[in-house]
Amino acid sequence: xxxxxxxxxxxGAMGAHMARNLHRANLLTQVWNRSSEKAQALAAELGCQMAxxxxxxxxxxxxxxxxxxADEDVLTVVEQLLPGIRPGQxxxxxxxxxxxxxxxxAARLATRGADFLDCPVSGGTEGARDATLALMAGGSEAAFQxxxxxxxxxxxxxxxxxxxxAGQAAKATNQIMCAGIIRAVGEAMxxxxxxxxxxxxxxxxxxxxxxxxxxxxxxxxxMVRGSYPAGFRVRLHEKDLKICRDMAATRGATLxxxxxxxxxxxxxxxxxHGDEDISAVFRLTERLFN
Length: 290
Prior knowledge:
Elements: E1 6-9, H1 15-24, E2 28-32, H2 36-46, E3 49-50, H3 54-59, E4 63-66, H4 71-81, E5 90-93, H5 99-110, E6 115-118, E7 121-122, H6 124-130, E8 133-138, H7 141-146, H8 148-154, E9 155-162, H9 166-194, H10 199-206, H11 214-225, H12 234-249, H13 256-270, H14 282-285
Parallel strand pairs: 1-2, 1-4, 2-3, 4-5, 5-6, 8-9
Antiparallel strand pairs: 7-8
C-alpha cells in the first residue's frame, strides 16, 4: 500500500517518538492529542496537520494509530473516531490495556467495517525514539499484513500472537516479567550498596553477566544517581499490573510477584513518587538495610 496515510492519536512520552518515526517513513499526515498544545507543537515540528478531532483525523487517513494511557481512554477515542471511520480502514492500538478492552474496541469498529489490531509495545522511551520497539499484535492475519509498513516504521520486532486480545495478553506477560526484574534489581543494588561496593562498577560489570537485563543496564544507573526521571512511570506500571492481576483472576490465579510489586507501588505513590520511573523502587529496597 504505497501512498498509505497514517494519523496518530496520543502524543505522550512514547507516542510523540513513534509519530516522528512514522513521519520519517513518509507515512504520517495527521496528529491529534487530548491536550492540543502537544499536537500543535508536533505538527509544527514535522510539517504535518493537526486534526481538529479524532473523527476528522479518521476521515483523512487510511490507518489510525492510538497510543493512550488507559482502557477508558482507548474506548473513548474509538467512540470519537467512529463518525469518521470508513469500511476497510485500519485502527492500530499501541496502548497497554486489557484483552477485553481490545475486543470491545474491535467490535465497535467492526460496526463501521473497519479492522482493528491490538498492538502494545515494549522497549521504553529509548525504543520508541530509536524505532527499536517490540510490537505484540492481536487481530486477523490480513489486518496484520496490511499494517506491516506502519509497524516496521515504529519497531524492530513485530509478532502476531493470535486473534484480537492476544497482543495485550503478550504485553501483560511482559509486564509481569518486568515486575520481577524491577524488584530483583532493586534488592540487588541495595545489597551491593550495603556491602560498600562501587555501584557504577556493579552496573558496568554485572550488566555483562548472566543476571543482566535491558532494565538493569538502562535503569540501574538511576539508582546509582539517586534520580528517577520517567522512562516508565510507577503509576502506569501499576495500572498494567492491575490488568495482569484481573486477567489472572479470571483463571483463578494470584501472582505473587505482581502482588508484591503492587504493594511497593502503592507505597511509592503514597509517598509522592508515582510519576517517577519504576526504578524508584530502589527508594524502598534501600531501606531494607537501614
